[in-house]
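**User:**
My hope is that you can spare some time for a protein that puzzles me. This is the protein in question:
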Amino acid sequence: MTVTLTDRDKLTLRTAAYGAISLFAAAGTAPHKVATAGSIALTSATGVVGHVLAEKSAIGDLGGKSVAELADRVLPALTAAMRILREQDSAEADNFRTTITIALAAGAERATPAPAAAAMSHKITAALDAA
């Protein structure tokens, strides 16, 4: 099946993916190590998702004054990304979900286990599954 994504769709996917890593890093210990490991894992994605994440294009606004502000942008973007992909190709939606899960695991390996990071991981997974 051919997947056709608009520039807006691609922005949503990139914002969701890199935002998930930023959100997870903000909730745990060693945020720079977590963000680096997670971002490197995102670059190993394949398929349509891999091509979109590898583009040297803009990522949505991931700033804010709190983790809550970041979550307000990222969690809906994760759900939207899954809907966009699922509408066109369920295999790519599964690929996106797996990519995010692997990136979170890569980040988790770089940090001391923390309850806040575990809770954020569950929120990210719930947002992926909400589509």
In short: Helices lie at 7-27, 31-42, 47-54, 67-88, 90-109, 115-129.
